[in-house]
Specification:
2 strands, 8 helices, flat, mainly alpha, single chain, Four Helix Bundle (Hemerythrin (Met), subunit A)
Length: 309
């Protein structure tokens, strides 16, 4: 449970182990620092205006707009998040070299891959939209998730079953599915920010509902083709490994459920009455289906994907 195991396979040497270990913890430290700095960059007050200013055509005084975050701490926090993403990527590459396979043998490796993808997407969206609240939330989720993974799961690298060895198609499938789930998580985080702001308009530090909705929509529409292609690659590989494209395995079914929820969200964007809160709740449900897939299916249900336990 937790810790780095020295059993790393033929290519796993001391240098690889040290790189894997140091990069992982460097990523966690950078994540923690980024959450602190991003939280400090946000102006967590609402009723206090920075002052009053006179309008050009009137002597009346009007409240002056107050930025929701401080630029310098925001830039530093985003820089730390990029550093964390890079460190997690280095750790992921080192583990892949040590295992001679992508991180699919246990949940520890998969959490590492998910953590990297989520941190990178959060940094990209935060930088693009100049929005500190989203990367703050996602970085905190990644930090807590990786700490829980380190404490709860065995990091030892085990030999893969024959069907999973030296299979490029499977590697592509796992990579695309990981990216799609990370993107859906980012969209869900933006939806949570939207819901909080819409139910509590005076809540300080959060993005306007229009911006949160735009971020969620962008992330969801990027996740949909990724998830579709990922499931298709998985079905094609399953036929070569197990002799059938689809067998309603619990993980297959759970992935299909996530896809259908995502399709429903995209469909709702064309219906005016179903936008806003309703659509945001659908993305929250999509995230819930991912959690169900990773927790309930992996640990409580027997299936062809039970190797992920």
């Amino acid at each position: 449970m937790g810790g780095f195991n020295s059993s790393v396979g033929a290519l796993g040497g001391t240098a690889v182990l040290e790189t894997w270990y140091v990069a992982f913890w460097a990523g966690l430290v950078s994540l923690a620092a980024s959450t602190v700095v991003l939280a400090r960059s946000i102006r967590w007050y609402s009723g206090r205006a920075s002052g009053l200013t006179a309008t050009a055509d009137s002597m009346s005084l009007q409240p002056r707009a107050v930025p929701r975050y401080s630029p310098r701490p925001f830039s530093l926090g985003m820089g730390l998040l990029w550093v964390a993403s890079g460190a997690l990527l280095v750790s992921l590459i080192a583990r892949t070299v040590a295992a001679q396979a992508p991180p699919m043998s246990n949940m520890w490796g998969y959490f590492l891959a998910m953590g990297f993808a989520m941190a990178a997407f959060a940094a990209w969206f935060g930088q693009r939209y100049r929005e500190p609240a989203l990367p703050l939330v996602v970085a905190l989720v990644v930090l807590l998730g990786l700490l829980a993974s380190e404490r709860s799961f065995d990091s030892a690298i085990r030999p893969l079953i024959p069907a999973l060895q030296a299979n490029r198609l499977l590697t592509i499938h796992v990579t695309i599915m990981t990216l799609s789930y990370a993107m859906i998580t980012t969209a869900s985080a933006a939806s949570v920010l939207y819901l909080v702001k819409s139910y509590f308009p005076g809540f300080p530090g959060l993005p306007p509902t229009e911006k949160a909705s735009r971020i969620a929509h962008t992330a969801a529409t990027m996740a949909l083709p990724l998830l579709t292609v990922g499931i298709a690659f998985g079905a094609y590989w399953a036929n070569s490994a197990w002799g059938r494209y689809w067998a309603w395995d619990p993980k297959e079914t759970a992935s299909l459920l996530t896809l259908l929820v995502l399709v429903e969200y995209v469909h709702m964007q064309g219906l005016r009455k179903w936008r806003g809160r309703r659509a945001s709740w659908v993305l929250v449900i999509a995230f819930g289906s991912i959690v169900f897939n990773m927790v309930a299916v992996n640990f409580w249900v027997t299936g062809l994907h039970s190797y992920a336990k």
